[in-house]
Amino acid sequence: MVCASGFINEEHDSLYFRFSLRPPNYKAKCEYQQLLKVDAKRENEMLKRELIPAYSTITYTLRNFSEMQQKEGFVYSDPLVDDLGFTWRLLIYANGHNEGRGCHLSVFLILFEGVTGSRFEYRVELLHRNPLANIKMEGVNVFKLKKIWGWPQYIHHDRLRDEGYLNEDDTLEFRLSICPPDIKLKCEYQQEFIRKLKESHK
């Protein structure tokens, strides 16, 4: 019957089918499109977590700011040891340094231990009780071992007091976050750092 009715393509000995689908209405179509966007966004975020390294973070409290402001010296933050084993510190001049001296807080970032010439994403924040008011410096930089890099005019002294960054107990709160830009660089730095450590122990 199928053959006689011409449904079979005799040249290829095959049958052809067609089927069609569509949402029942425009409202349903929009809902399905939105669900697809949500799923795609979720998958994209999961992929990012796999390919983009997470930040290593430390919070540091600078104490006795007013006393330090009367001096010309600096203070190091506690060390941040990232998951590669690199060691980072903030270098803070309460009374400013270079063009910031006398009127600004100066903040610098130093790679103390690691692979010189490493490219890292950084985020340096002066914290405020209102997180939206945090003073945030972030970007990507190539860091050389024990070379200071940063902001001589991070924030004016007047703003520290007038805008509430200086706490009642005369402290300032900083947060430092560091990570390589991508997983490829992270693996390269890790291998180079391991090689460096092995050579130093020979």
UniProtKB/TrEMBL annotation:
Pfam families to which the protein is assigned, alphabetical: MATH_2
CDD domains in the record: MATH_TRIM37
Source taxon at top rank: Eukaryota
Gene3D superfamilies cross-referenced by the UniProt entry: Apoptosis, Tumor Necrosis Factor Receptor Associated Protein 2, Chain A
GO biological process: aggresome assembly; protein autoubiquitination; protein monoubiquitination
GO molecular function, one term: ubiquitin protein ligase activity
SUPFAM superfamilies reported for this sequence: TRAF domain-like
Residues in MATH domain copies: 55-178
InterPro entries per record: MATH/TRAF_dom, TRAF-like, TRIM37_MATH, TRIM_RBCC_E3_ubiq-ligases
Listed PROSITE patterns: MATH
SMART domains tied to this protein: MATH
GO CC, alphabetical: aggresome; peroxisomal membrane
Protein name per UniProt: Putative e3 ubiquitin-protein ligase trim37
